[in-house]
Amino acid sequence: MKKILIFIFFFLNFSNSYAEAKISYIDINFIIENSIVGKSLNNHMNSLKKIHFDKFNKLENDLKKKENELISKENILERNEFQNKVKKLQEEIKSYRINRNTSNEEINSNKIKNTKKILLFLDPIIKKYVDNNSIALVLPKKNIIVGKKNLDITDAIINILNEQVKEINFE
User: Fold this and answer.
1) What are 98-137's pLDDT values in tens digits?
2) What digits encode the pLDDT tens for the residues 36-60?
3) Which of 67, 118, 125, 120 lies closest to 92 in space, CA to CA?
4) CA 65 to the chain's CA centroid
């Protein structure tokens, strides 16, 4: 009986599989922010935001001037005329806010659309890297609590992306 137990223990102990599945992680946001095309996207978006900010800042200053002028004329104008001018100014302010929100939404949708362009270039690069390095699973870094630095493939992917894609035409 003792020999059977030793025999079973011996075979059960060596029947474990010692295969290793290679797992890595990647920080897509870091790649989008720090690659050459990612930096060009950020510059493009910053210039768009500046143009829109300057435009709406000027409109806002004009509205404030109109409001101050209207307040200064409150005692001079007739009540009905003053009320009409207040309503007109409120409509202009409402229109300004709608236009500003629409512009912000356009900027955000533009950024999403252009980020998708970068991801279209990035996807085959990651797939090829995974195949060439026999990686079984790639996880997003945001879902990793702790991991060895040598499992991070972000820098390698950035280097490949920078070599293959120098510029993307953003709209």
Assistant:
1) 999 999 999 999 999 999 999 998 999 999 999 999 888 8
2) 999 999 999 999 999 999 999 999 9
3) 67
4) 37
Identify the residue whose tokens are 């079984």. 136
Cα separation, 109 vs 95, whole angstroms: 21
Please state the three-class secondary structure of the chain as a single string.
CHHHHHHHHHHHHHCCCCCCCCEEEECHHHHHHHCHHHHHHHHHHHHHHHHHHHHHHHHHHHHHHHHHHHHHCCCCCCHHHHHHHHHHHHHHHHHHHHHHHHHHHHHHHHHHHHHHHHHHHHHHHHHHHHHHCCCCEEEEHHHCCCCCHHHECHHHHHHHHHHHCCCCCCC
What does each C-alpha distance from 127 to 20, 25, 57 come to in angstroms?
A: 20, 13, 45
How far apart CA 13 and CA 10 sit, in angstroms, is 5
Q: What angle do CA 61, 64, 65 make, to 5 degrees?
A: 90
Q: What is the total residue count of the chain?
A: 171
d(CA 95, CA 98): 5
CA–CA gap between residue 142 and residue 96 (Å, rounded): 38
